[in-house]
Amino acid sequence: MGEFELIRRFFASAACAAGGEGIALGIGDDCALLQLPPGEQLAISTDTLVAGVHFPDAADPFLLGQRALAVSASDLAAMGATPVAFTLALTLPDARADWLDGFARGLCAMARGCGLGLVGGDTTRGPLSLTLTVLGRVPAGGALTRAGARPGDLLCVGGSLGDGAGALPLVLGQREAQGAHADYLLARYWSPQPQLALGQALRGRATAALDISDGLLADCGHIAKASGVALWVDQSRLPLSPALTALHPRDFALKCALAGGDDYRLAFTLPATELAAVQGLWPEMAVIGRVDAGQGVHLLDSTGAELLPPVLGYQHFGSQGD
Ligand code: ADP
Ligand code: MG
User: Fold this and answer.
1) What are the GO MF terms of this UniProt record (predicted)?
2) Is the C-beta atom of 132 inside 6 A of ligand 1?
3) Which residues contact 104 (CB under 8 A, 6 or more apart)?
4) Interval 173-218: pLDDT, tens
5) Could you read off the pLDDT of 294-308 as tens digits, one per residue?
6) Architecture of domain 154-307 in CATH?
7) Domain residue spans in the chain?
8) Of 49, 201, 207, 218, whose CB is crowded by the most CB atoms within 10 A?
9) Ligand 1 pocket mutation pick from 122, 124, 128, 130 by most atoms within 8 angstroms of CB
């Protein structure tokens, strides 16, 4: 199978490459063309996933396709952007039809769920790696950035934390587990749902936002720095899923929630006056702390005492696999 045959068979003719809102020209020419409504800005993000570094070499291709796009689309969610299109640069050791078929189906399933059209890419031979670029649109000046958190705001997250890291021992085959809890954690790892609707709902409400990919404490550090504030995280308020706490001891579950990567939940800061509205739209959200004057991320135990030094203690764990 030659390069053009491969592109045509698995990507250009895929259902997710059939165009969509904002796509004036898709796969097949030298460039794709996008049409933005007047007054909107383009939001762009790129991620590369390398076999053996970001996912196991033998990863199921369907799950890999799904996860790769979810991870990228999560960046659009974090900015409050509406998904439009994506490109795929694929480096493959060989052109195996069964692998490509599974991969393209997983990719397309996530693409259609997110409202992203495949508009182009590149195909080369080499060690397996994937680079995805996602494009979204956002009203000019309305994107959610990491800067803008203000003292007095509430610190919130879009749902349970730690599931991605809690799934890792199962993903890597270091731990055997069956049943509904294991299935839940594996699904959270392999098909995290980018919080796109939440991100769009936070536009005009949240003062800062990002998606948690490197662990809550590390990522909150980015908001604290960009906004010039201190974030206080209340450890007893971290939302832990029943599956995470059923399959792991509480200490490990907390570590996963504080410092584990791969959650792809949004973390955001919210003026208290906006809380009821956002809770109404997104009941799974949780208030986990507050913003204050100062700097850095601080962790409080259930008695309100500061746990020291929280970030240093967990950073090594959190940097696994990045
Ligand atoms: P060029 O030589 O002009 O860069 P290519 O021959 O690399 O174009 O690709 C031909 C067309 O197929 C282009 O529209 C390109 O965007 C698209 N394409 C190539 N690889 C992929 C892929 N893996 N997924 C989706 N589209 C792809
Ligand atoms: Mg060209």
Assistant:
1) ATP binding; magnesium ion binding; thiamine-phosphate kinase activity
2) no
3) 10, 11, 14, 65
4) 899 989 999 999 999 999 899 999 999 999 999 999 999 999 999 9
5) 999 999 998 989 987
6) Alpha-Beta Complex (3.90)
7) 3-139, 154-307
8) 207
9) 122
